[in-house]
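Side project, low priority. Logging it here so it doesn't get lost.
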Amino acid sequence: MKTRITELLGIEYPVIQGGMAWVAEYHLAAAVSEAGGLGLIGAASAPPEIVREQIREARKLTDKPVGVNIMLLNPNAEEIAAVVVEEGVEAVTTGAGNPGKFMEMWKNAGIKVIPVVASVAMAKLMERAGADAVIAEGMEAGGHIGEATTMTLVPQVVDAVRIPVVAAGGIADGRGFAAAMMLGAEAVQMGTVFVTAEESIVHNNYKQKILGAKDIDSEVTGQSHGHPIRSLRNKMTREYLKLEREGIPFEELEQLTLGSLRKAVIDGDVVNGSVMAGQIAGLIKEEKSCRKLIRDIMEQAEALLKK
């Protein structure tokens, strides 16, 4: 399936793996890229040299295009912006800010820049800044979310910009992929389903929490202070929401979640850790290799789109 995104990135399938903190490391990124999608290394708050090492390790596993997701609020963002140029990364996705000040440097290096947006206004701003495409992410997604749903956000962004749009949030199979194409997207970005991939280094407890999830098992914390995060409910989310209702200041609530994502991803503590996952978790029932996962999605989507 050829779209402007597959042409832009030089990939076989219009599938991008989400740049999830602690989850999106080089094993997963390389496996997704090798399977024909675009694998991303999630820089999150990692030091620049760790990101450099991750890129180099991914290069040992695949010669296909690999990208890096950069959170622009990261104190190391400027150094990481330079690292991706030095290491010859093919694409960068960005979140939590405007990548405008890095755009010229990245463009001069031939890097494709694809910011994640949660509104039409931000999509237009990114287009004016020189973005090659945008990822319109609905609030069904795991982790940090906006307010609009994927179903409402994607077509509005498609209508508002001339650059290609990638749909994200609530997509985990060929039906979701086909729906995204019908809304005008030219690729999808998926996160939660790749957390459960065979190549994912995420602790098995985390994977099993997703594989055993029901449709109603995700909830959003942090809405009262403007930092909404979607996770699977557990002791930590219940405690957080209780304190949030009591009006505890944001700074104190932050202490509750400090290091909680690492606790879940690496240590397997799915009781007190932050098990970030999208609403689509209830649909994911099987651990697959990245290759089988992508192939199954594409086969189902192509059959639906031909009807």
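Brief comment: The CA atoms of residues 196 and 207 lie 5 Å apart.
Revisit when time allows.
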